[in-house]
Amino acid sequence: MELRIHGLHASIEGKEILKGIDLTLPQGEIHALMGPNGSGKSTLANVLMGHPSYEVTGGEVYMDDIDILSLEPYQRARLGLFLAFQYPVEIPGLTAGKFLKRAAELRLEDGGKLNVSSFIRELRAHMDFLEMDHQFINRYLNEGFSGGEKKRMEMLQMLALQPAFAVLDETDSGLDIDALKIVSKGVNSLKGPGFGALIITHYQRILNYIRPDRVHVMVGGRIVRSGGPELVERLEKDGYDWLKSQAAAEHAKV
Ligand SMILES: Nc1ncnc2c1ncn2[C@@H]1O[C@H](COP(=O)(O)OP(=O)(O)OP(=O)(O)O)[C@@H](O)[C@H]1O
Ligand SMILES: [Mg+2]
């Protein structure tokens, strides 16, 4: 499968944030998305998943030949799209275990039935893999979790749902070195022909553990540069100024 974004424009509260995004992510590849604060990375992630606050004003997003922009978020999830949030929400009153079970049920086609005992067995194996205490699934989702624990919970969701495409929005932010390695291990364990990932990050760190096939840079709601992993090193060294001025010059021409 292929996730294809073409000419995507999106606004929030009447303000245009995405100004024509083109990006193709085939399964089997890992892409990194970098860019300054406020450039629209999370907006793209949210629009892909179908967040209702954003208005898509142009362009298209396809998973193979399916136009996903007309689908509800749960239908996109059912097709295999997954988003790990930059700021996971706390849901008091809903245990993490119930949430994961419900999410797994919703991923099944209509009428499909989840085998609960094997689901729980797999969940425990995933928790061991992520070095998480089994008690986490009895706690209310993300309530009182540390920043790093919330990110690890996002990775547990990803492993439990086995998505076709995962968008990870700054899953590496706020992680200690050990947690960063564990999160990377989680992504790398899914790596293969049936999995594609878009890793939104500010730092080279995580990309030392998860080698991206392509790197895209977003500035001002546009992808202004795509390249190989060497682009990350240039950004780490020189920052974004050279791309910002280039992007401004090109935009002025249009
Ligand atoms: N509800 C809103 N009303 C107005 N502007 C908004 C709203 N939500 C987001 N924005 C604006 O959209 C722009 C893009 O935000 P977004 O969160 O996508 O950036 P980002 O690239 O993810 O940044 P960061 O690296 O800091 O996470 C920002 O200027 C932000 O202020
Ligand atoms: Mg963001």
Concise synopsis of the structure shown:
With 254 residues, this protein is α/β, with parallel strands linked by helices. The chain is 39% helix and 29% strand. The protein has a domain at 2-87 and 163-253: Rossmann fold, CATH 3.40.50.
Describe the structure.
The structure is a single chain. This protein has 254 residues and is an alpha/beta fold. The chain has a domain at 2-87 and 163-253: P-loop containing nucleotide triphosphate hydrolases (Rossmann fold), CATH 3.40.50.300. The protein is built from 9 helices and 12 strands. Strand 1 (2-12) and strand 2 form a beta hairpin. The model has no long low-confidence stretch (mean pLDDT 95). The radius of gyration is 18 Å and the shape is globular. The two termini are 34 Å apart. It binds adenosine-5'-triphosphate and magnesium ion. Adenosine-5'-triphosphate (ATP) binds next to strand 2 and helix 1.
Uncertain regions: pLDDT < 50 for 5+ in a row? Answer: none
Mind telling me the C-alpha Rg?
A: 18 Å
Q: What is the terminal-to-terminal distance? A: 34 Å
CATH architecture of the domain at 2-87 and 163-253, by name, is 3-Layer(aba) Sandwich
SSE ordering: EEEHEEHEEHHEHEHEHEEHH
The coarse silhouette is: globular
CATH class placement of the domain at 2-87 and 163-253: Alpha Beta
**Structural class based on helices, strands and sheet pairing:** alpha/beta
Q: Treating each run of at least 4 consecutive H or I residues as one helix, how many helices?
A: 9
Share of helical residues:
25-40%
**CATH superfamily label of the domain at 2-87 and 163-253:** P-loop containing nucleotide triphosphate hydrolases
**What is the averaged pLDDT score?**
95
CATH domain fold name of the domain at 2-87 and 163-253: Rossmann fold
Which sheet architecture does the biggest sheet show?
Answer: 6 strands, mixed
* Strand runs, count: 12
Bound molecules: adenosine-5'-triphosphate, magnesium ion
How are the strands of the largest sheet arranged? 6-9-10-3-11-12
Taken as a percent bin, the fraction of beta residues is: 25-35%
